[in-house]
Design a protein that fits this description.
The complex is a heterodimer of chains A (590) and B (156). By secondary structure, chain A is an alpha/beta fold. Helices cover 45% and strands 15% of the residues of chain A. Chain A has 25 helices and 20 strands. In chain A, helix 18 links the parallel strand 16 and strand 17. Chain A is elongated and about 105 Å long. Chain B has one domain. In chain B, helix 1 runs antiparallel to helix 2 and helix 3 packs antiparallel against helix 4. The longest helix of chain B is centred in the N-terminal third of the chain and has 42 residues. The two termini of chain B are 25 Å apart. Chains A and B meet through strand 4, helix 1 and helix 5 of A and helix 1 and helix 4 of B.
Amino acid sequence: MALEIGGEAVAAAGPAVRLMAARSGDSTLQVSAEDGSIKALHSLYDPRAEAASIVGRFRFDGSGMLVVLGLGLGYHVAELAERFPGAEIVVVEAHREIFRLHKLHGPQLGERVRCLVGLEPERAVREVTRLQLRSGFAPLAVFSLPPALAAFPNYYGKIRSSLEAAARLRLWDRLKYPRFAGDPVHVGLIDYGYYLTNEVARAAERSGHSVIRIPIRKGQEGEEAVRILIAQLAECRLDFLLTINHLGFDKAGMLTSFLKSIELPAAVWYVDNPNLIVKAFDANVSPFVSVFVWDRGYMADMRAMGFEHVVYLPLATDEEVFRPLRLSRKEAEQLGADAGFVGNSMVGPARDWLEKVGGRLRPLVEEAAEALSRRRDSLAQVLTSARDRAGPAQATAAEWLDFEGAVLWRATLLYRLSCVRQLGRFRHRICGDEGWKSLLGDGFRIHRQLNYYTELPRFYNACKVNLNATSLQMESAVNQRVFDCAACGAFLLTDRRESLDELFEPGRESVSYRDAGEIPDLIRFYLDKPEAAAAVVRRARERVLREHTYAHRLASMIAHMKARYGRPGAAAGVAQAAAVDTQYRECHGQ
Amino acid sequence: MDNDKTTRESELLDAVEKGLAEGAGVAAELRDSLLRSVDEIRLGGPGQGQAMARFTQALENLTLMTDLVRELRKGLHCLGIEANPFSAWDHAGEGLAAMVSALENRDWILLADTIQYELCPLLEETEKRAGATARMLARWHAAGGPAAGHQSRSTI
């Protein structure tokens, strides 16, 4: 069954159409043409043989999108569909009456064939372009039904000229230039307004690479994003596209398909739980998308989803924003404290995610969150236990993802609260959202949120001990604060994470607690021994400048991308691997 | 007198025999040329100009062919031979009228159809039957031709 996209009629009165029996017994059509003459749209003797003959002379490699101008009764379309099973076929038919007769008297066309019926030529071209974008900007070929073109030259002629010009351009071929062919590397950075975007851009530019920002905002994902990218690609030969947390990509995978069609690789740097972002949207899995995760704990999940290239890339810092600052005594008193904490209470996110959870699973959230907040069980263990508790009333994958989000944010709230409460006995300062007031109550000095770029570096510099309580969405990673605080030359007391010891030498470059109960003693110790704190701070900052700036991360990412996509023939190899993977999935019904 | 008549008949037989053979050859050439043009005419693409030029030339040859058919019919009649290898031409007018209409309307499908399904079969038939008749006349000629008398003509 062909999909039809209706629209306004081309003319109020269509042409006179005469349905006739051909000598072969099939139906055939005659129409009154634009010039008033009567013309046959198919052979009056054997329309099927005619279709086989004219299609047999059509030169087409069978891939991409084939636009057929003129449906008639559809004999040629059926022949094209049979001969080119790999092509996506779009038929443009000027007249609704002809389409109606095709449905009644023509051969059946499969699902693969779409019909655009009764659209003005300009709109028909726009629709074809839209469909082409949706299919990942597949190569375009045009087949004209000759008598339809002869009968309605003003209609089909305009469309054919536009489409053939586009087909001749073969934009996708022009966009398939070798990647990473020279220096500097041209990075296309999706600018979604996310905080990390500026840091990444500055780091890349400081390292001598060229950064082209691609502004894509919420609501522009999909077709619009592809259009914006094409406009940029016309200006600059990007080596790869970079985004944070898959921002700018659409759930249906349109941008991913486009990147695959032009073999432009993308690096997605996850700095938040990827399961909550991409796990339900496997159309975004592609061999041309490399996933960089800040937390090793999610690498297995991403590989299980089908991403072939998954790399661990921890967070870092912008050492020009976060640096030691000379504060006046007055400023230090106004801003700082003996013990400080800055961060979100998670009251808002926990409430929002809980609202997403359906009635069957909601009662399980609190218990799971408590278990996770005490860091008694891992997230995987907590989720397994919840599934067992849910019993036969199983939920959908999307519902479990909402459950996971609700548990994570609620657990983080409980965990952070247990840590931040320990500051009550010191001269402290807590900066964050309004949620802290309801959680902590009286007896705590709670201040507004701080500007990340202008106020936070001063805050770190002003506090003698900065407390860190990592969000529990991170299974093993450390957060931004670990790098930012160290870069400021400020002391940080952080919670023990698996990755912390890889990034900083324990005791010499970092000080950590395992349990919230250890926090008061550790704070007291380093308040009493400022020289010990200063030694840790000095070594931590040296380590950051040596290994943990965004420039280091960008260098690592570019090296990985170059190794995978920059070799001669690398794109072809990746594409071939993709084809094999597709065949495998089809064979195994995946 | 009889000898003169026999000589004239023998010359006519000679001419008809050659005319039939030539007609069969022309029909075959015409058919091949037209068949080569049919797809191009249907497709209406860049090759259509050349195909139409071939078709115009074929039309001129067809006119000559029509004259030849008329003369050969007369010749066979004069020889008293009952065979009619050109009987299909009795209805050729309809196909030719359809071609004229198709050309006027620039209806290339109808034109190609008429060439492929009307004219080419007519030429194929002509080629076969004119050739067969020519071969039979040749055999009769070898057996004595008109001098062999009336009896033998009826077997042709």
